[in-house]
Design goal:
The protein is about 45% helix and about 10% strand. The protein has three helices and three strands. It is globular and about 50 Å long. Bound molecules: zinc ion (ZN).
Length: about 120
Protein backbone atom coordinates (compact mmCIF):
# COMPACT_ATOMS: atom_id res chain seq x y z
CA UNK A 1 0.00 0.00 0.00
CA UNK A 2 1.31 3.45 -0.92
CA UNK A 3 2.18 6.17 1.58
CA UNK A 4 -0.57 8.51 0.43
CA UNK A 5 -3.17 5.83 1.08
CA UNK A 6 -1.75 5.11 4.52
CA UNK A 7 -1.83 8.81 5.32
CA UNK A 8 -5.39 9.16 4.09
CA UNK A 9 -6.37 6.15 6.18
CA UNK A 10 -4.74 7.65 9.29
CA UNK A 11 -6.45 11.01 8.83
CA UNK A 12 -9.90 9.52 8.31
CA UNK A 13 -9.43 7.16 11.27
CA UNK A 14 -8.47 10.12 13.43
CA UNK A 15 -11.69 11.88 12.52
CA UNK A 16 -13.74 8.75 13.14
CA UNK A 17 -12.09 8.32 16.56
CA UNK A 18 -12.87 11.95 17.35
CA UNK A 19 -16.52 10.93 17.15
CA UNK A 20 -16.11 7.58 18.88
CA UNK A 21 -16.62 5.69 15.65
CA UNK A 22 -13.32 3.85 15.52
CA UNK A 23 -14.95 0.47 16.00
CA UNK A 24 -13.72 -2.71 14.35
CA UNK A 25 -16.62 -2.65 11.87
CA UNK A 26 -15.96 0.92 10.85
CA UNK A 27 -12.21 0.39 10.57
CA UNK A 28 -12.86 -2.49 8.17
CA UNK A 29 -15.09 -0.21 6.08
CA UNK A 30 -12.18 2.27 5.91
CA UNK A 31 -9.80 -0.50 4.91
CA UNK A 32 -12.14 -1.59 2.11
CA UNK A 33 -12.32 1.98 0.83
CA UNK A 34 -8.55 2.44 0.99
CA UNK A 35 -7.93 -0.87 -0.78
CA UNK A 36 -10.44 0.04 -3.49
CA UNK A 37 -8.63 3.33 -4.10
CA UNK A 38 -5.29 1.64 -4.70
CA UNK A 39 -6.09 1.11 -8.40
CA UNK A 40 -6.92 4.79 -8.75
CA UNK A 41 -3.50 5.87 -7.47
CA UNK A 42 -1.86 3.24 -9.67
CA UNK A 43 -3.74 4.52 -12.72
CA UNK A 44 -3.20 8.17 -11.98
CA UNK A 45 -0.09 8.80 -9.84
CA UNK A 46 -0.46 12.57 -10.34
CA UNK A 47 -3.75 12.38 -8.48
CA UNK A 48 -2.09 11.06 -5.32
CA UNK A 49 -2.44 14.47 -3.68
CA UNK A 50 -6.22 14.15 -3.90
CA UNK A 51 -6.45 10.79 -2.22
CA UNK A 52 -7.34 11.99 1.30
CA UNK A 53 -10.18 13.98 -0.19
CA UNK A 54 -11.49 10.97 -2.09
CA UNK A 55 -11.06 8.48 0.76
CA UNK A 56 -12.93 10.80 3.16
CA UNK A 57 -15.82 11.06 0.70
CA UNK A 58 -15.84 7.32 0.02
CA UNK A 59 -15.92 6.54 3.74
CA UNK A 60 -18.71 9.04 4.27
CA UNK A 61 -20.74 7.34 1.57
CA UNK A 62 -19.97 3.83 2.81
CA UNK A 63 -20.92 4.68 6.39
CA UNK A 64 -24.20 6.29 5.43
CA UNK A 65 -25.85 2.86 5.15
CA UNK A 66 -24.17 1.40 8.22
CA UNK A 67 -24.04 4.11 10.86
CA UNK A 68 -25.76 7.07 9.21
CA UNK A 69 -24.43 10.51 8.41
CA UNK A 70 -20.88 11.18 9.57
CA UNK A 71 -19.45 13.50 10.73
CA UNK A 72 -22.26 15.55 12.18
CA UNK A 73 -21.83 19.30 12.35
CA UNK A 74 -20.68 20.46 15.82
CA UNK A 75 -21.59 24.09 15.21
CA UNK A 76 -24.55 25.61 16.98
CA UNK A 77 -26.01 27.78 14.26
CA UNK A 78 -28.99 29.11 16.12
CA UNK A 79 -28.60 29.50 19.89
CA UNK A 80 -32.38 29.94 20.16
CA UNK A 81 -32.95 26.45 18.89
CA UNK A 82 -33.20 23.88 21.68
CA UNK A 83 -32.51 20.87 19.53
CA UNK A 84 -30.47 21.74 16.48
CA UNK A 85 -31.35 19.53 13.55
CA UNK A 86 -28.41 17.19 12.97
CA UNK A 87 -26.68 17.61 9.64
CA UNK A 88 -23.46 16.23 8.26
CA UNK A 89 -20.31 18.01 7.24
CA UNK A 90 -19.11 17.81 3.66
CA UNK A 91 -15.62 17.46 2.28
CA UNK A 92 -14.52 20.55 0.40
CA UNK A 93 -13.29 20.90 -2.23
CA UNK A 94 -14.76 17.88 -4.03
CA UNK A 95 -11.37 17.09 -5.48
CA UNK A 96 -8.51 18.99 -3.92
CA UNK A 97 -5.16 18.71 -2.22
CA UNK A 98 -6.13 20.19 1.11
CA UNK A 99 -9.55 18.87 2.04
CA UNK A 100 -11.55 20.36 4.89
CA UNK A 101 -14.78 19.48 6.64
CA UNK A 102 -17.26 22.23 5.98
CA UNK A 103 -20.82 22.90 7.05
CA UNK A 104 -22.76 23.93 3.99
CA UNK A 105 -25.65 25.11 6.12
CA UNK A 106 -23.60 27.71 7.96
CA UNK A 107 -20.91 28.14 5.34
CA UNK A 108 -18.23 27.39 7.95
CA UNK A 109 -15.01 25.48 7.67
CA UNK A 110 -14.94 23.21 10.72
CA UNK A 111 -11.53 21.50 10.47
CA UNK A 112 -9.07 20.03 8.03
CA UNK A 113 -9.71 16.36 7.25
CA UNK A 114 -7.58 14.56 9.84
CA UNK A 115 -7.99 17.21 12.53
CA UNK A 116 -11.63 16.98 13.46
CA UNK A 117 -12.49 17.72 17.08
CA UNK A 118 -15.23 16.12 19.06
ZN1 LIG B 1 -23.67 23.08 10.51
Amino acid sequence: MTDVLLEARARVLHDLAARGLDTADVVSVVDEVVTARQWWVDEWPDGAAFITCLVAQDVQEALLDQVGPWPLCPVVHDPEEDEPSPHELRVAPDLGEDPHWVCEEGGVVVAPVGALHR
